[in-house]
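fyi for ur records
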Amino acid sequence: VPSRSRADAVTGRHSASMATVKRNTELKKVKFGTTDMMVTRVCAGTMTWGSFNADESQAHAQLDKLWQLGVNFIDTAELYPVAWNYGALTEKWIGNWLTKRIADGTVERSKLYIATKVNPGGVGNEHPTRAKKVHGYDEEIVEWSCRKSIERMNCGYIDLYQIHWPSRDTPLMSTPTFRPADENGKIKNRPMGWHDRGAQEDFDRTIKSIMKLFELGLIRHWGVSNENAFGITMLCQTAIRLGCPLPVSCQNDFSILNQTYEEDTWEAAYRFGIVGLPYGALSGGTLTGKYFDKSHPQYIAKDEAERPLDKCRHRVSSDFQPRYGCSQAMAATRECVELAERWGITPTELAIAWSIARPCNANGSVIIGTTTVRQVEECVGAALLELPDELMKEVDVIHEKYRNPCMYYTEKEIWKSLPGLPPAASEPEPEREQ
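which gave:
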Protein backbone atom coordinates (compact mmCIF):
# COMPACT_ATOMS: atom_id res chain seq x y z
CA VAL A 1 0.00 0.00 0.00
CA PRO A 2 1.52 3.32 -1.02
CA SER A 3 2.12 5.95 1.62
CA ARG A 4 -0.16 8.96 1.69
CA SER A 5 1.07 12.50 1.23
CA ARG A 6 0.83 14.94 4.12
CA ALA A 7 -1.81 16.90 2.21
CA ASP A 8 -3.87 13.77 1.66
CA ALA A 9 -3.59 12.89 5.33
CA VAL A 10 -4.84 16.32 6.37
CA THR A 11 -7.72 16.49 3.91
CA GLY A 12 -8.64 12.82 4.16
CA ARG A 13 -8.20 12.40 0.40
CA HIS A 14 -8.25 8.75 -0.58
CA SER A 15 -5.76 7.12 -2.89
CA ALA A 16 -7.39 4.92 -5.53
CA SER A 17 -5.07 2.02 -4.75
CA MET A 18 -5.99 1.90 -1.07
CA ALA A 19 -8.91 0.25 0.77
CA THR A 20 -12.20 -0.33 -1.02
CA VAL A 21 -15.80 -0.33 0.16
CA LYS A 22 -17.25 -3.53 1.61
CA ARG A 23 -20.42 -4.73 -0.11
CA ASN A 24 -22.64 -7.18 1.78
CA THR A 25 -24.88 -9.73 0.09
CA GLU A 26 -27.97 -9.51 2.30
CA LEU A 27 -30.24 -6.52 2.91
CA LYS A 28 -30.14 -5.75 6.61
CA LYS A 29 -33.20 -5.24 8.77
CA VAL A 30 -33.30 -3.35 12.05
CA LYS A 31 -35.79 -2.98 14.88
CA PHE A 32 -37.31 0.40 14.02
CA GLY A 33 -36.66 2.48 17.13
CA THR A 34 -38.97 1.60 20.00
CA THR A 35 -41.39 -0.35 17.78
CA ASP A 36 -41.60 -4.05 17.02
CA MET A 37 -41.25 -3.36 13.29
CA MET A 38 -38.24 -5.08 11.70
CA VAL A 39 -37.66 -2.87 8.67
CA THR A 40 -35.08 -2.71 5.93
CA ARG A 41 -32.48 0.07 6.08
CA VAL A 42 -34.06 1.64 3.01
CA CYS A 43 -37.72 2.59 2.75
CA ALA A 44 -39.54 2.95 -0.57
CA GLY A 45 -40.36 6.58 -1.33
CA THR A 46 -43.38 7.19 -3.53
CA MET A 47 -43.98 10.92 -3.95
CA THR A 48 -43.33 11.09 -7.71
CA TRP A 49 -45.72 8.27 -8.60
CA GLY A 50 -48.54 10.06 -10.36
CA SER A 51 -46.54 13.06 -11.55
CA PHE A 52 -43.02 12.33 -12.80
CA ASN A 53 -44.18 8.73 -13.22
CA ALA A 54 -47.30 9.28 -15.30
CA ASP A 55 -48.33 5.64 -15.72
CA GLU A 56 -49.53 3.49 -12.84
CA SER A 57 -47.73 0.50 -14.34
CA GLN A 58 -44.41 2.26 -13.72
CA ALA A 59 -45.16 2.54 -10.01
CA HIS A 60 -46.29 -1.10 -9.86
CA ALA A 61 -43.10 -2.27 -11.58
CA GLN A 62 -41.00 -0.43 -9.02
CA LEU A 63 -43.05 -1.84 -6.15
CA ASP A 64 -42.63 -5.35 -7.54
CA LYS A 65 -38.87 -4.89 -7.76
CA LEU A 66 -38.65 -3.38 -4.26
CA TRP A 67 -40.53 -6.34 -2.80
CA GLN A 68 -38.44 -8.80 -4.81
CA LEU A 69 -35.25 -7.23 -3.44
CA GLY A 70 -36.54 -7.55 0.13
CA VAL A 71 -37.68 -4.01 0.91
CA ASN A 72 -40.58 -4.26 3.37
CA PHE A 73 -41.20 -0.59 4.18
CA ILE A 74 -43.17 1.94 2.09
CA ASP A 75 -43.63 5.65 2.78
CA THR A 76 -46.36 7.73 1.17
CA ALA A 77 -48.78 10.56 2.03
CA GLU A 78 -52.26 11.82 1.30
CA LEU A 79 -50.47 14.79 -0.32
CA TYR A 80 -48.74 12.69 -3.00
CA PRO A 81 -47.90 12.92 -5.82
CA VAL A 82 -45.97 16.20 -5.78
CA ALA A 83 -44.98 18.94 -8.24
CA TRP A 84 -48.35 18.51 -9.98
CA ASN A 85 -51.44 16.27 -9.68
CA TYR A 86 -51.22 16.79 -5.92
CA GLY A 87 -53.17 14.55 -3.60
CA ALA A 88 -54.57 11.03 -3.10
CA LEU A 89 -53.46 9.45 -6.38
CA THR A 90 -50.25 7.82 -5.12
CA GLU A 91 -52.08 6.07 -2.28
CA LYS A 92 -54.67 4.80 -4.78
CA TRP A 93 -51.94 3.33 -6.98
CA ILE A 94 -50.32 1.67 -3.98
CA GLY A 95 -53.71 0.28 -2.97
CA ASN A 96 -54.29 -1.19 -6.42
CA TRP A 97 -50.89 -2.87 -6.31
CA LEU A 98 -51.34 -4.15 -2.76
CA THR A 99 -54.78 -5.58 -3.49
CA LYS A 100 -53.43 -7.40 -6.55
CA ARG A 101 -50.33 -8.75 -4.81
CA ILE A 102 -52.18 -9.93 -1.71
CA ALA A 103 -54.71 -11.68 -3.95
CA ASP A 104 -52.03 -13.54 -5.91
CA GLY A 105 -50.14 -14.49 -2.73
CA THR A 106 -47.03 -12.44 -3.44
CA VAL A 107 -47.43 -10.11 -0.45
CA GLU A 108 -48.61 -10.78 3.09
CA ARG A 109 -49.98 -7.58 4.63
CA SER A 110 -48.49 -8.22 8.08
CA LYS A 111 -45.00 -8.40 6.57
CA LEU A 112 -45.24 -5.06 4.76
CA TYR A 113 -44.93 -1.87 6.80
CA ILE A 114 -46.86 1.09 5.44
CA ALA A 115 -46.22 4.68 6.49
CA THR A 116 -48.32 7.62 5.37
CA LYS A 117 -48.98 11.21 6.42
CA VAL A 118 -51.70 13.74 7.11
CA ASN A 119 -50.97 17.35 6.17
CA PRO A 120 -52.44 20.55 7.70
CA GLY A 121 -53.08 22.03 4.26
CA GLY A 122 -55.87 19.55 3.63
CA VAL A 123 -54.34 18.54 0.29
CA GLY A 124 -55.45 15.08 -0.75
CA ASN A 125 -57.84 14.44 2.12
CA GLU A 126 -60.85 14.40 -0.24
CA HIS A 127 -63.11 15.81 2.49
CA PRO A 128 -66.46 17.08 1.14
CA THR A 129 -66.18 20.47 2.89
CA ARG A 130 -62.62 20.75 4.24
CA ALA A 131 -60.49 19.69 1.29
CA LYS A 132 -57.49 21.98 0.75
CA LYS A 133 -58.41 24.02 3.83
CA VAL A 134 -55.74 24.72 6.45
CA HIS A 135 -56.32 22.98 9.77
CA GLY A 136 -54.58 22.36 13.08
CA TYR A 137 -54.80 18.56 13.24
CA ASP A 138 -58.19 18.45 14.98
CA GLU A 139 -59.82 15.10 15.71
CA GLU A 140 -62.43 15.24 12.95
CA ILE A 141 -60.06 15.89 10.07
CA VAL A 142 -57.26 13.63 11.31
CA GLU A 143 -59.62 10.66 11.69
CA TRP A 144 -61.13 11.41 8.28
CA SER A 145 -57.71 11.60 6.63
CA CYS A 146 -56.51 8.40 8.27
CA ARG A 147 -59.61 6.47 7.23
CA LYS A 148 -59.34 7.77 3.66
CA SER A 149 -55.70 6.67 3.44
CA ILE A 150 -56.64 3.20 4.66
CA GLU A 151 -59.51 3.09 2.18
CA ARG A 152 -57.35 4.18 -0.76
CA MET A 153 -54.61 1.69 0.02
CA ASN A 154 -57.00 -1.07 1.13
CA CYS A 155 -54.50 -1.89 3.86
CA GLY A 156 -56.69 -2.29 6.97
CA TYR A 157 -54.52 -0.14 9.22
CA ILE A 158 -51.50 2.16 9.08
CA ASP A 159 -48.24 0.96 10.59
CA LEU A 160 -46.77 4.46 10.91
CA TYR A 161 -48.99 7.55 10.71
CA GLN A 162 -47.08 10.81 10.45
CA ILE A 163 -47.80 14.51 10.84
CA HIS A 164 -46.47 15.85 7.54
CA TRP A 165 -45.45 19.30 8.78
CA PRO A 166 -46.25 21.62 11.70
CA SER A 167 -49.49 23.59 11.61
CA ARG A 168 -47.90 26.41 13.61
CA ASP A 169 -46.23 29.55 12.26
CA THR A 170 -42.72 28.25 11.73
CA PRO A 171 -40.58 28.29 8.57
CA LEU A 172 -40.28 25.09 6.56
CA MET A 173 -38.17 23.26 4.00
CA SER A 174 -35.40 25.56 2.76
CA THR A 175 -34.20 27.25 5.94
CA PRO A 176 -33.53 26.30 9.57
CA THR A 177 -33.84 29.94 10.68
CA PHE A 178 -36.91 30.66 12.79
CA ARG A 179 -39.17 33.61 12.01
CA PRO A 180 -42.64 33.79 13.59
CA ALA A 181 -45.62 35.27 11.79
CA ASP A 182 -45.86 39.05 12.02
CA GLU A 183 -48.85 41.08 13.24
CA ASN A 184 -50.42 40.75 9.80
CA GLY A 185 -50.14 36.99 9.82
CA LYS A 186 -47.38 36.91 7.25
CA ILE A 187 -44.49 34.53 7.75
CA LYS A 188 -41.19 34.53 5.99
CA ASN A 189 -39.78 31.35 4.47
CA ARG A 190 -42.90 29.18 4.59
CA PRO A 191 -44.40 28.07 1.26
CA MET A 192 -47.69 26.89 2.74
CA GLY A 193 -50.32 28.34 5.08
CA TRP A 194 -50.31 28.07 8.86
CA HIS A 195 -53.08 27.53 11.40
CA ASP A 196 -51.82 28.36 14.88
CA ARG A 197 -48.94 29.79 16.91
CA GLY A 198 -47.83 26.63 18.67
CA ALA A 199 -49.51 27.22 22.03
CA GLN A 200 -49.98 24.38 24.52
CA GLU A 201 -53.61 24.00 23.45
CA ASP A 202 -52.46 23.43 19.87
CA PHE A 203 -50.20 20.56 20.90
CA ASP A 204 -52.97 19.18 23.10
CA ARG A 205 -55.32 19.16 20.12
CA THR A 206 -52.82 17.27 17.96
CA ILE A 207 -52.05 14.65 20.59
CA LYS A 208 -55.72 14.04 21.33
CA SER A 209 -56.28 13.42 17.63
CA ILE A 210 -53.49 10.85 17.56
CA MET A 211 -54.82 9.19 20.70
CA LYS A 212 -58.19 8.74 19.04
CA LEU A 213 -56.58 6.90 16.12
CA PHE A 214 -54.97 4.49 18.57
CA GLU A 215 -58.29 3.99 20.37
CA LEU A 216 -60.00 3.22 17.06
CA GLY A 217 -57.29 0.73 16.07
CA LEU A 218 -56.48 2.64 12.88
CA ILE A 219 -52.73 3.03 13.51
CA ARG A 220 -49.93 1.06 15.15
CA HIS A 221 -47.39 3.89 15.60
CA TRP A 222 -47.04 7.58 14.79
CA GLY A 223 -44.28 9.96 13.85
CA VAL A 224 -43.43 13.51 12.88
CA SER A 225 -42.02 15.07 9.74
CA ASN A 226 -40.40 18.39 8.84
CA GLU A 227 -40.21 19.14 12.57
CA ASN A 228 -37.72 21.01 14.74
CA ALA A 229 -36.52 20.60 18.32
CA PHE A 230 -39.29 22.74 19.82
CA GLY A 231 -42.03 20.80 18.04
CA ILE A 232 -40.62 17.41 18.98
CA THR A 233 -40.18 18.40 22.61
CA MET A 234 -43.65 19.89 22.96
CA LEU A 235 -45.35 16.96 21.23
CA CYS A 236 -43.50 14.44 23.38
CA GLN A 237 -44.07 16.26 26.67
CA THR A 238 -47.74 16.67 25.79
CA ALA A 239 -48.03 12.98 24.86
CA ILE A 240 -46.50 11.99 28.20
CA ARG A 241 -48.90 14.25 30.11
CA LEU A 242 -51.98 13.01 28.23
CA GLY A 243 -50.98 9.33 28.22
CA CYS A 244 -50.38 8.97 24.49
CA PRO A 245 -47.61 6.79 23.02
CA LEU A 246 -44.61 8.84 21.96
CA PRO A 247 -43.82 9.42 18.29
CA VAL A 248 -41.33 6.84 17.07
CA SER A 249 -39.70 8.56 14.10
CA CYS A 250 -38.85 11.89 12.51
CA GLN A 251 -38.92 12.28 8.73
CA ASN A 252 -36.86 15.36 7.89
CA ASP A 253 -34.85 16.42 4.88
CA PHE A 254 -31.33 15.02 5.33
CA SER A 255 -28.40 14.42 3.01
CA ILE A 256 -24.72 15.17 2.49
CA LEU A 257 -25.91 18.58 1.26
CA ASN A 258 -28.24 19.25 4.20
CA GLN A 259 -27.14 18.07 7.63
CA THR A 260 -29.12 20.59 9.68
CA TYR A 261 -31.13 17.78 11.30
CA GLU A 262 -28.03 16.77 13.23
CA GLU A 263 -28.04 20.07 15.06
CA ASP A 264 -30.55 20.58 17.88
CA THR A 265 -33.39 18.66 16.21
CA TRP A 266 -31.59 15.35 16.51
CA GLU A 267 -30.85 15.93 20.20
CA ALA A 268 -34.56 16.39 20.90
CA ALA A 269 -35.37 13.27 18.88
CA TYR A 270 -32.58 11.28 20.54
CA ARG A 271 -33.66 12.20 24.07
CA PHE A 272 -37.18 10.91 23.40
CA GLY A 273 -36.09 7.72 21.60
CA ILE A 274 -37.17 8.93 18.15
CA VAL A 275 -35.29 7.44 15.18
CA GLY A 276 -34.56 8.94 11.78
CA LEU A 277 -36.63 8.24 8.68
CA PRO A 278 -35.05 10.88 6.43
CA TYR A 279 -36.04 11.86 2.94
CA GLY A 280 -33.91 13.69 0.36
CA ALA A 281 -30.82 11.47 0.57
CA LEU A 282 -30.17 12.12 -3.14
CA SER A 283 -31.20 15.79 -2.95
CA GLY A 284 -33.88 15.38 -5.56
CA GLY A 285 -31.54 13.43 -7.82
CA THR A 286 -28.72 15.98 -7.73
CA LEU A 287 -26.36 13.68 -5.81
CA THR A 288 -26.67 10.96 -8.45
CA GLY A 289 -24.32 13.02 -10.62
CA LYS A 290 -26.69 12.92 -13.59
CA TYR A 291 -26.76 16.69 -14.02
CA PHE A 292 -23.06 16.59 -14.91
CA ASP A 293 -23.99 15.21 -18.30
CA LYS A 294 -20.79 16.43 -20.02
CA SER A 295 -18.10 15.90 -17.40
CA HIS A 296 -19.61 12.66 -16.00
CA PRO A 297 -21.98 11.41 -18.73
CA GLN A 298 -22.11 7.85 -17.42
CA TYR A 299 -24.68 8.69 -14.74
CA ILE A 300 -27.43 10.07 -16.93
CA ALA A 301 -26.59 7.43 -19.56
CA LYS A 302 -27.83 4.72 -17.19
CA ASP A 303 -31.39 5.99 -17.53
CA GLU A 304 -31.19 7.57 -20.97
CA ALA A 305 -33.88 5.33 -22.45
CA GLU A 306 -36.52 5.68 -19.72
CA ARG A 307 -35.55 8.90 -17.98
CA PRO A 308 -33.46 11.21 -20.18
CA LEU A 309 -32.23 14.43 -18.57
CA ASP A 310 -35.02 16.54 -20.03
CA LYS A 311 -37.48 14.36 -18.10
CA CYS A 312 -35.61 14.61 -14.79
CA ARG A 313 -36.97 16.65 -11.90
CA HIS A 314 -34.91 19.83 -12.06
CA ARG A 315 -35.30 20.12 -15.82
CA VAL A 316 -39.03 19.34 -15.90
CA SER A 317 -40.03 21.48 -12.91
CA SER A 318 -37.26 23.94 -12.09
CA ASP A 319 -39.37 25.76 -9.49
CA PHE A 320 -40.07 22.57 -7.51
CA GLN A 321 -37.55 22.15 -4.67
CA PRO A 322 -34.85 24.25 -6.39
CA ARG A 323 -32.78 24.13 -3.19
CA TYR A 324 -31.48 20.70 -4.17
CA GLY A 325 -29.85 21.94 -7.35
CA CYS A 326 -28.67 25.43 -6.39
CA SER A 327 -25.22 26.70 -7.37
CA GLN A 328 -23.50 25.86 -4.10
CA ALA A 329 -25.15 22.43 -3.99
CA MET A 330 -23.87 21.67 -7.47
CA ALA A 331 -20.33 22.65 -6.49
CA ALA A 332 -20.45 20.35 -3.47
CA THR A 333 -22.03 17.59 -5.53
CA ARG A 334 -19.23 17.64 -8.07
CA GLU A 335 -16.77 16.91 -5.25
CA CYS A 336 -19.02 14.10 -3.99
CA VAL A 337 -19.13 12.59 -7.48
CA GLU A 338 -15.35 12.66 -7.75
CA LEU A 339 -15.00 11.23 -4.23
CA ALA A 340 -17.30 8.32 -5.07
CA GLU A 341 -15.33 7.59 -8.22
CA ARG A 342 -12.05 7.49 -6.30
CA TRP A 343 -13.55 4.81 -4.07
CA GLY A 344 -15.03 2.78 -6.91
CA ILE A 345 -18.70 3.32 -6.08
CA THR A 346 -21.42 5.42 -7.69
CA PRO A 347 -22.45 8.83 -6.35
CA THR A 348 -25.89 7.39 -5.65
CA GLU A 349 -24.38 4.61 -3.55
CA LEU A 350 -22.24 7.10 -1.65
CA ALA A 351 -25.14 9.41 -0.83
CA ILE A 352 -27.52 6.69 0.37
CA ALA A 353 -24.93 4.59 2.22
CA TRP A 354 -23.64 7.74 3.94
CA SER A 355 -27.16 8.62 5.15
CA ILE A 356 -27.68 5.11 6.48
CA ALA A 357 -24.35 5.22 8.32
CA ARG A 358 -25.01 8.48 10.17
CA PRO A 359 -25.64 8.01 13.92
CA CYS A 360 -28.89 9.99 13.74
CA ASN A 361 -30.33 7.23 11.54
CA ALA A 362 -29.19 4.29 13.65
CA ASN A 363 -32.07 1.79 13.94
CA GLY A 364 -33.95 3.87 11.40
CA SER A 365 -34.49 3.69 7.67
CA VAL A 366 -33.57 5.99 4.77
CA ILE A 367 -36.23 6.82 2.19
CA ILE A 368 -35.22 6.27 -1.42
CA GLY A 369 -37.05 7.97 -4.28
CA THR A 370 -37.07 6.31 -7.70
CA THR A 371 -38.78 6.61 -11.08
CA THR A 372 -37.39 3.48 -12.81
CA VAL A 373 -36.76 -0.15 -11.91
CA ARG A 374 -33.06 0.33 -12.60
CA GLN A 375 -32.97 3.14 -10.05
CA VAL A 376 -34.65 0.85 -7.54
CA GLU A 377 -31.89 -1.72 -8.01
CA GLU A 378 -29.11 0.82 -7.52
CA CYS A 379 -30.70 2.54 -4.53
CA VAL A 380 -31.49 -0.72 -2.73
CA GLY A 381 -28.01 -1.97 -3.58
CA ALA A 382 -26.55 1.07 -1.84
CA ALA A 383 -27.88 -0.30 1.46
CA LEU A 384 -25.49 -3.23 1.10
CA LEU A 385 -22.44 -0.98 1.38
CA GLU A 386 -20.45 -0.38 4.57
CA LEU A 387 -18.55 2.88 4.23
CA PRO A 388 -15.20 2.93 6.06
CA ASP A 389 -14.41 5.71 8.52
CA GLU A 390 -11.87 7.14 6.12
CA LEU A 391 -14.50 7.69 3.46
CA MET A 392 -16.96 9.16 5.97
CA LYS A 393 -14.29 11.65 6.99
CA GLU A 394 -13.72 12.63 3.38
CA VAL A 395 -17.41 13.51 3.17
CA ASP A 396 -16.92 15.59 6.31
CA VAL A 397 -14.26 17.59 4.47
CA ILE A 398 -16.75 18.44 1.73
CA HIS A 399 -19.33 19.36 4.36
CA GLU A 400 -16.95 21.72 6.13
CA LYS A 401 -16.19 23.37 2.81
CA TYR A 402 -19.82 23.64 1.68
CA ARG A 403 -21.87 23.83 4.87
CA ASN A 404 -25.46 22.76 4.16
CA PRO A 405 -25.54 24.33 0.68
CA CYS A 406 -29.19 23.39 0.13
CA MET A 407 -30.24 25.68 2.97
CA TYR A 408 -30.24 29.45 3.36
CA TYR A 409 -29.96 31.10 6.75
CA THR A 410 -30.88 34.77 6.16
CA GLU A 411 -31.98 35.98 2.76
CA LYS A 412 -32.98 33.62 -0.04
CA GLU A 413 -31.89 36.02 -2.78
CA ILE A 414 -28.40 36.34 -1.29
CA TRP A 415 -28.15 32.55 -1.10
CA LYS A 416 -29.26 32.17 -4.71
CA SER A 417 -26.59 34.64 -5.86
CA LEU A 418 -23.67 32.86 -4.18
CA PRO A 419 -20.89 31.68 -6.50
CA GLY A 420 -20.74 28.04 -7.46
CA LEU A 421 -21.78 26.01 -10.48
CA PRO A 422 -24.84 26.64 -12.65
CA PRO A 423 -28.00 25.19 -11.04
CA ALA A 424 -29.19 21.70 -11.95
CA ALA A 425 -32.08 23.29 -13.84
CA SER A 426 -29.62 24.90 -16.28
CA GLU A 427 -28.91 23.18 -19.55
CA PRO A 428 -26.58 22.08 -20.84
CA GLU A 429 -23.84 21.65 -18.24
CA PRO A 430 -21.10 24.19 -19.03
CA GLU A 431 -17.64 23.02 -19.97
CA ARG A 432 -15.40 22.74 -16.92
CA GLU A 433 -12.47 25.12 -16.73
CA GLN A 434 -9.10 23.37 -16.94
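The mean pLDDT is 92. thats all i got for now
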